[in-house]
Design brief:
Oligomer: single chain
Helix content: 55-70%
Order of helices and strands: H
Structural class: mainly alpha
Radius of gyration: 36 Å
Number of strands: 0
Shape: elongated
């Protein structure tokens, strides 16, 4: 198969020399020319898009605060684990001291 080029690497960069298919004429309609859609629908869609764009910073801030809350909760859990380990080591040392004290008392 002898191809002159690929999509990523065309044989020529000049669009006039490329053998590209013409675009389908049914696809060249704009929003207001599309059958079945009224200007009111288009206006509502634009308003919705505008409202969505205005709400984007709010949703980004909400997501950021949610991630910060999860991070803070994770740090609190980590601190609780560290505290529990510290208390466990202290209890083990106290237990060893008590065993030694008992052993010393029994030996005398």
């Amino acid at each position: 198969m002898s191809t002159l080029g690929t999509i990523d690497h065309p044989s020529t960069r000049d669009p006039a020399l490329r053998h590209l298919l013409e675009q389908d004429p049914t696809m060249k309609t704009t929003d207001f020319q599309t059958p079945g859609r009224h200007r009111d629908d288009i206006g509502a869609a634009r308003q919705k898009r505008t409202r969505d764009m205005q709400l984007m910073p709010e949703s980004l801030a909400r997501a950021h605060m949610d991630s910060r809350l999860r991070e803070a909760e994770s740090e609190r859990r980590a601190m609780r684990v560290l505290l529990a380990r510290r208390l466990q080591r202290r209890a083990e040392r106290a237990s060893l001291r008590a065993r030694r004290a008992i052993a010393m008392a029994v030996m005398q």
